């Protein structure tokens, strides 16, 4: 009888371990299921600190000046300070990110957030310290290209953020 | 001994059923994990056939004329024929949808697709017959509001689509 009980205990343990693996596998799939758009190529133009990828979804033209890109920031990565002559709209697709305008507090962006960056306002955006960040960037090109400035210092990058949902 | 074996069999069966429920729950969560933006309110302005929801992420203004909305179509639902004076960009977030310009073949849109609708081109878009469709719609408002026309007939809605990936 003891031997039979041992056999059943071993079988039950094995089943429990198998169930645990299956659950983790399902959870892992859901963690990556927000990879909606291609990640694209690593950005090597020197305008970002850390590791950033860009995939161009729509190119602006003379008829519709908006370009639309899928930007993926590794945790800790961010753009340099920069401005867009026609402004920009950011849609947070996944992860946690930061956005900051010159002279204002840093804002946390989370999946589902949307924020409008006014024309000619110097700002930066990127991933949070702990999490990657995926954003759709909608940028008007009809008033000229993006203008790039200096890197975001560690002090600015790590500054205390506003924790309210980003204002539209 | 037989009684002990029965007890263990019952325990094992119960554990298996619990594991099955947990797996289905995880799969269910991943199926809904592309619900990035709020679904919003049901559209009741008469410009859509079937059930459609809209959530406004960004309102256009005098500084940046782009409005950005999250549009969710139930399977079989679609807009009426319409045009945008400043054009539109659609980003397919989830599901399967259709897009058609007047005089051209219907195009299938799938999660991850992006398409640019030129200014003043009469078109419609919506969900496929079998699947709901979630899209981000980026619409310039600086040249006036959307102009709405007639409903899409069942014949047009069910026309044979082009199966290639939607052109940018």
Automatic annotation (TrEMBL), chains A, B:
Domain of life: Bacteria
Secretion signal span: 1-18
InterPro entries from the UniProt entry: Cupin_2, HNL-like_cupin, RmlC-like_jellyroll, RmlC_Cupin_sf
Protein name (database record): Quercetin dioxygenase-like cupin family protein
Native organism taxonomy: Bacteria, Pseudomonadati, Bacteroidota, Chitinophagia, Chitinophagales
SUPFAM superfamilies assigned: RmlC-like cupins
PANTHER family (alphabetical): BLL4564 PROTEIN, RIBD C-TERMINAL DOMAIN CONTAINING PROTEIN
Domain (Cupin type-2) ranges: 71-134
Keyword Signal: yes
PROSITE patterns: PROKAR_LIPOPROTEIN
GO molecular function ontology, one term from the record: dioxygenase activity
Record's keyword annotation contains Methyltransferase: no
Keywords: Dioxygenase, Oxidoreductase, Signal
